[in-house]
Specification:
By secondary structure, this protein is mainly α. The chain has a domain of 34 residues. The chain is rod-shaped, with a radius of gyration of 28 Å. Keywords: Membrane, Transmembrane, Transmembrane helix.
């Protein structure tokens, strides 16, 4: 019976370590995404149709 308890404790420890690892990776990914603001270079309201450049000779 003692061996069965040891295996159960080992499995619970392994699953707990995996869960902690997944939560850590998710948190780090989320924090990295939050710290980088979205690209503001494209403003939809000021976008207009492009006029073809006329070639001057």
């Amino acid at each position: 019976m003692e061996s069965r308890d040891d295996k159960l404790i080992a499995i619970i420890g392994l699953l707990s370590a995996c869960l902690i690892g997944v939560v850590f990776l998710f948190t780090m990914t989320w924090l990295t995404d939050v710290r980088h603001p979205a690209d503001q270079s494209l403003d939809v309201q000021t976008c207009g149709p492009k006029h073809p450049n006329s070639q001057q000779s």
